[in-house]
Every structure is written in structure tokens, then in C-alpha cells.
Amino acid sequence: MRISVAELRAPELEFGDNKAYFTDPRAGLALAGPFSLRFGRAHKAQIRLGLVGPRNLLQDARHWYERCEGEIFTGKPENPMYLPFAGFERVFQSVVVLDRSWEANIEKELAVALERSGRDRFEGVLDAYSAAISKLSRAQSLDVITCCLPSDVITSCWSITRTLTRTERKQLQKAKKDEALGQMSFETLWVPDDTSEDLLQRDFRRALKARAMEANIPIQIATPNLFYDDQASQDPATRAWNSSVALFYKAGGIPWRVRSEGPETCFVGISFHYLRTTKSDLMYSSLAQAFSSDGEGFALKGDSVPRSEEPGRTAYLSSGQASKLGRKVLSEYQERTGKDPSRVVLHKTTQFTGDERRGFSETFDQIPVVEFINIAPSDFRLVQRSAYPPKRGTLCRINDDATYLFTTGYIPEWQTYPGMHIPAPLKILTDRDTDIVRAATDVLALARMNWNTAFDTTGAPITLRFARQVGGIMAEVGQREPSPSYRFYM
To answer: Residue 471's pLDDT is what?
Structure first.
């Protein structure tokens, strides 16, 4: 058995100053400003922020955003893992603007809705927030709306059990049996594809995101854990960094991108999720999450796929369906960048079938480089003679056949491993003629493209990280064509 171990360089991130590169997004933002500064300040100088929620949370939200205007300290002993927040305007060179006329107090509506039970309560609370979002978006020219959810909403209607048809109940029983036997219909990676629970449960967060999409405005969901220091599990500076990065991106800014010296690349994650229909058969809907080299992301809904009755058989696209989905990706990429990519990299948690390869290859026949990459969880572990696990970026190859990448692990810049469990590497499979080191470097870089946080240590590549979340929102949208903009799904 031949085992080789190498360490990939930490991905360098690009910011406003094109001469400076950083590995920590917080340091880059504080010292060089957001990446969108490179395009002549291609983000808004003012972010008009609306607020929806009960009266007391509206007041707390207002206080939090005002607090984020200035410097916020971590409250922790000096440690490179924790950095103070320098203030929104100083970090992003943009100002968050609040106005009482941009607020919607739905305290009475929530009180009435929360008196109900079960499905009626879920729908009542959802309607209260949706109506306020719609009203604010029509009356005001807002960039983002923050929906403030009180604790009783989170505890009483965060999810609801669906009413299943007879066919769906049978499908649920079969899915649970497959999962118990270790024969899941989807190989899960950070649970991106649907499981039996997704068929059974309906999620409030996803439903509210879908309703906001109808109003054509991105929303930020905030809970008391964001506003109050005594209830939060994170220190105030970390909360400020995370919520501010997400707000800035949803308002149209680009916080950072991964430094790339190669050709313009379109990275695409392919996954599937449950699609409820009025027909007798339960279907899957295919999904593509795509990201350009500059970090701009979009999500596209593909064709429906029948559920296989064969135990352990994964969902897959026909050649025609793969070709059609590929054309949608290219069309959206061209519309956003004005040109075709020079390279397309496709990620999937299960192996690509011959039909999928033929369909995508046919569509991308004019693209110079097309790569098919499988990324799966693994039971493989490495132990080193140290108090810490292997470094993030450790690449282990066995007999040139199996490749394992640690996207989490010891972080030298922080002088610690921030995780709670032994880090598990990803297993990466590629075609023989694909440069495996380059493919692994891409995965490591894409793990840094999460603009929902500035403190990201989960290690999942962005192409697959939010697949389950995006699929759930698209399922709520139903038969309507969902917005492709990634800002609606974060």
C-alpha cells in the first residue's frame, strides 16, 4: 500500500486592495475592504434596511444595527481566532440606513396566529410576516428586510408535519427502510439532498424565504440570539461579522473572492430534492448551484426525476435532462458575465452516470475544459503524533486510487483546531486525466465561499453546501419559476 500525504496551501482571498491577499476574511475586510471596491465601488453606498417583527424585537434590532456602526470587541482573551468588528461602514465602506417608516410591527397579527394550533398556526405566522414583507417592498425602495422572529415563533412553529397522501406515506416508509439499511436514495454530504424527514416536515425558514422571493427582496432572518449577548452562543464581535457579511452580500455587494490564477471557471453542484405533485407518483427535482470565478452564485431548477424503486439506487438525470440543465447554467452564466466560461467543473455526491456525462458533455462541447468530480463523505481518518489533528488542507492519496482531503482540521493561523469532533476528510474521485491536486485545491477554495458567515470552519464546498436548503425553498415556490439569484436562498 502506497500512502502519500501533502499539505495544500491555504486559499488566498482577494479583497478591495488588489495588492493584498488574506486567508482570514475578517482580516481582509478590515484591512483591504470588500472585493466589490475593485469595480469602482460596485456596491451601494447606503443599504436601506427594512424591519419586520413584534415591537420589542424591532427596538432590539434597531439597537443591534446601531451598535454595529461602531467597534465591537469579542470579550474573549486575546486569541487570533477571535477578531474585533471594526464597524460596518469602516469594514464595507457602506452605511446601513434605518427608518421608522421602513418598519412593520406585526405584534397583533402574531398574537392572533400563535393562539392557533398546528398547521393553522404555522400558516398564520407565515402569512403575518409575508404580508408585511410584501407591503414594505411595494411602499419602499429597500435593499434587504430583516425578519425578527421571537422565541415563541421558533419554539412553536419552526416546522410542521405535512399531510401526506397515501402514495407519499408508502414512499416515506420505503425511504425510512432504505435509510435504516444504509441504502439511502442519496449519498448525503452535510445532508444536502433530501431525506425521509424532508418529505414529512415543512420548514418555516424555507417557507418564509420562498414568500420573500415573490416580493422580489432578499430577507435576513434574525432571532434573539443575534441581538442579546446573554442569550447568544457566540461572542458579539463574531455575531457582528457574520450578520454583516450576509447583509452586505444580500444588498448586492461582493465581500471577497478566492484568488485564482487559472481560466474563468463555472463551478456547478448537481443535487436532487423531493418534489410534491398532484399526480400519484412522488418525484425528485434536479437542482444546479453554480458559482463563477468572481464568486457570483445562482441556483437553477431542473427537470423532475421519478423515484427509483430499486433499493439503494440513486436519482439521476437522463442525457436529455442533463443537457437541458447544462444549457440553463450556460445561459445564466452568459447573462451575468457576458461570456462563456473557459472551464466547467461539475460536483456531485454520487457518481455521474453515462447518460449524465453524455448530456453535460454535449452541452459543454465548446468549453475547453470540462471536469466531473465526485465528492463524498468518508470513514477515513488520519492520526498524527500531536495534540491536534491534521491541518486543514491535508491531502492523502492511497495507491493513486483514493484521495482524501481535509477541509477542516488544525488551522495554523489560529494555532488551534476549532472543531468539536475528529475531522473527517472528503473522498474525491475524478477522471484519470483530471489533475487531482487542482481538483482538491478547488474544493478547499470553494469551502471558503460561504457569505453567510465570516467565521467558517465547516469545510463544505459552496457548490454542495446549501443544496438541501435551496431545494427546500424551491419546493415551497412550487410550479412557479424561482429566482436564480443566490441572495434569495442564503
So the answer is: 81
Contact 74, 84 (CB under 8 A): yes
Cell representation of residue 335 = 447573462
**Could you read off the pLDDT of 246-298 as tens digits, one per residue?**
999 999 999 998 888 788 999 999 988 766 554 545 556 788 889 887 767 88
- Closest C-alpha to 281, from 174, 206, 179: 174
CA atoms within 13 A on the CB side of 64: 25
CB 486 within 8 A of CB 252: no
- Residue 309, Cβ neighbours under 10 Å: how many? 7
Reduced to 3 states (helix: H, G, I; strand: E, B; else coil), residue 243 is helix
Contacts of 396 (CB under 8 A, 6+ apart): 3, 4, 5, 380, 382, 403, 404, 405, 406, 425
Q: Tell me which of 235-249, 294-308, 437-451 is least confident.
A: 294-308
Mean pLDDT, the chain, rounded, equals 85
Going by C-beta distance under 8 Å and a sequence separation of 6 or more, which residues neighbour residue 323? 359, 360, 362, 363
| Residue with cell string 482570514 | 24
Q: For residue 264, what are the contacts with CB-CB under 8 A and spacing of at least 6?
A: 292, 293, 337, 339, 341, 342, 343
**Residue range 401-427, pLDDT digits in tens:** 889 999 989 998 888 888 778 888 999
The Cα 286–Cα 302 span in angstroms is: 5
Is 322 in contact with 356 (CB distance < 8 Å)?
Answer: yes
